[in-house]
């Protein structure tokens, strides 16, 4: 028996009845030889962490554009926080940790430069709109690995596609990541907003400190415990109804006081204009894009793919090289 087979047997014997077992995966679009050591979900996790798209997350905005400070979250640190929270919940509920981690690490691979500001810009430019969860699937199925994709298992792709609130993942592990994403960003975005002095402690809704906790770590601890306590022994898992309502209220507070803060509207307008100019430039001259982004028969989609894959700094570099005059040499 190989180490992989031993691990698969251990999953069947020890995981929850509702957990997704590696040996029972619905598989990949292209069959490949199984690893002697790693399960299929472990392989997916490794494929994601070794991808170019994953490395680019370190230079993509989470919320704050070009922050002056080293301690603001990026898309990569957000992803790692989601993975940590999700694994804690999955372990407590005896779900498949490897599948949970793979989904968490891949869930935001399709995010644009400049966070949701960039997503909003591309949403206006791409017929049919732009949604980062769908773009994440394009990354792992089409764009990565020189156009061959990562060939991930059905369960991981499903979790990536369905991590947004309005979606319904087909596995409990996908559901864990879906909620962990909210737990992570609501708490770290609140923390970053206070660090940026957009908010003060007295500006927070009373329920934040009184119910959820006075610090990010205590709030995350409270929400993780609530998820586990409310889900143990159940087939339908998630936060308790009253706490889920509190999370909705916190999300509405963040949108009104942080994400739509007028102090940053000017910067968001700049980003929208910059991405539109880049979009129009590549539409008029697609041959300047890398060859890997010229394989799609739909030019508009190809241009959107290229811009969505950019990091913040690469997008600004491209804009400066294309539209800003070069300095004269003495």
How would you sum up this structure, described in words?
It is a single chain. The protein is an all-alpha fold and 330 residues long. The protein has a single domain, classed as Hypothetical protein af1432. Helices cover 60% and strands 0% of the residues. The chain has helices at residues 3-14, 40-49, 52-56, 75-92, 97-106, 115-125, 132-147, 154-161, 172-195, 206-212, 216-231, 241-259, 265-284, 299-309, 312-323. Helix 6 (115-125) packs across helix 13. The radius of gyration is 21 Å and the shape is flat. 41% of the residues are buried.
The CATH topology comes to: Hypothetical protein af1432
Distance between the termini: 71 Å
CATH class: Mainly Alpha
- Strand pairing plus helix content: what structural class? mainly alpha
Number of helices in the DSSP assignment: 15
Write down the overall mean pLDDT. 93
Percent of residues in helical segments? 55-70%
Low-confidence stretches: none
Number of strands: 0
Largest sheet: none
CATH architecture: Orthogonal Bundle
Element order: H for helix, E for strand: HHHHHHHHHHHHHHH
Give the percentage of residues in beta strands: under 5%
The Rg value, from CA coordinates, equals 21 Å
Task: Give the tally of structural domains.
Answer: 1
Instruction: Characterize the overall form.
Output: flat
CATH superfamily (homologous) name: Hypothetical protein af1432
């Amino acid at each position: 028996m190989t180490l992989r087979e031993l691990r698969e047997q251990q999953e069947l014997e020890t995981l929850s009845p509702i957990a997704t077992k590696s040996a029972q995966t619905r598989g990949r679009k292209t069959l490949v030889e199984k690893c002697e050591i790693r399960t299929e979900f472990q392989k997916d996790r490794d494929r994601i962490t070794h991808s170019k798209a994953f490395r680019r997350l370190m230079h993509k905005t989470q919320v704050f554009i070009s922050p002056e400070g080293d301690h603001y979250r990026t898309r990569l640190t957000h992803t790692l926080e989601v993975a940590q929270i999700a694994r804690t919940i999955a372990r407590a509920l005896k779900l498949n940790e490897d599948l949970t981690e793979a989904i968490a690490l891949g869930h935001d691979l399709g995010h644009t430069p400049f966070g949701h500001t960039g997503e909003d810009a591309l949403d206006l430019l791409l017929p049919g709109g732009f949604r980062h969860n769908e773009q994440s699937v394009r990354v792992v199925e089409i764009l990565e690995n020189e156009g061959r994709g990562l060939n991930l298992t059905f369960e991981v792709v499903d979790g990536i596609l369905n991590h947004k609130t309005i979606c319904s993942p087909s596995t409990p592990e996908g559901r864990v990541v879906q909620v962990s994403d909210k737990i992570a960003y609501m708490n770290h975005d609140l923390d970053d907003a206070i660090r940026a002095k957009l908010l003060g402690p007295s500006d927070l809704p009373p329920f934040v400190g009184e119910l959820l906790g006075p610090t990010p770590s205590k709030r995350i601890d409270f929400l993780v415990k609530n998820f586990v306590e409310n889900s143990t022994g159940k087939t339908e898992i998630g936060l308790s109804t009253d706490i889920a309502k509190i999370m909705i209220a916190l999300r509405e507070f963040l949108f009104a006081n942080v994400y739509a803060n007028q102090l940053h509207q000017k910067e968001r307008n700049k980003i929208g204009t910059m991405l539109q100019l880049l979009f129009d430039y590549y539409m008029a001259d697609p041959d300047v894009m890398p060859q890997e982004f010229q394989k799609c028969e739909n030019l508009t989609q190809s241009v959107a793919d290229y811009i969505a894959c950019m990091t913040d700094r690469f997008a600004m570099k491209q804009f400066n090289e294309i539209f800003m005059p070069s300095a004269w040499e003495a």
